[in-house]
Amino acid sequence: MTFRFSRQWFLVLLLQGSAKADSLGTFGHVYPVQEPSMLEAIQEKLTGWAEEGDKLARMEEEYRSRVVASINHPSGLVIPKAQHEASHYFDPTIITTEDIRGAEGELVIPAGQTINPLDQMPLTKSLLFIDGDDAAQVAWLQQRLTLEPRAVPVLVAGSWLELRQRIQRPVYFDQQGFMTGRLGIRAVPSQVYQEDRRIRIDEVAL
Question: What is the pTM (predicted TM-score) of this model?
């Protein structure tokens, strides 16, 4: 007859030695053993490993969920909702403080030169900045896109993925407030577009 032992029983037999042994007699008083049996100790260890594995699996799943959530819904900016109509301008003109040279060392732009990037790269599309968590601003965005289909949606907060699926077009997110800080956007929704050689920012009260 063939016996099949589970891994746990194999460990028990291995650690306890032979299953058959001669009696060596009794010496002194006999007291009940207070320590757990080897089988109980091994079983406890195996149970601990299983629980630890379950715990690690839960931690991994929670971490994965947090990462996916942070990608789909990044930490947004706290920019107030526009309470009244207002406009201001951003002038991208700069004055070079030193010579700018090309890869071969040739002079491209001398120091002291006034440069406006819009002369070479005009802003041909409006940028529409909104808080994607505000239903009213999302509705305003959709209305603006019907009037200006080439406009570019830019979120300061909310889920870019949900909005992209809703409007079926690319949506951008102002990571760490780089664009809003540079343009001086103080309230949303805001429409950003080029006017002459400057960029105009219109805050829209809903």
Answer: 0.65
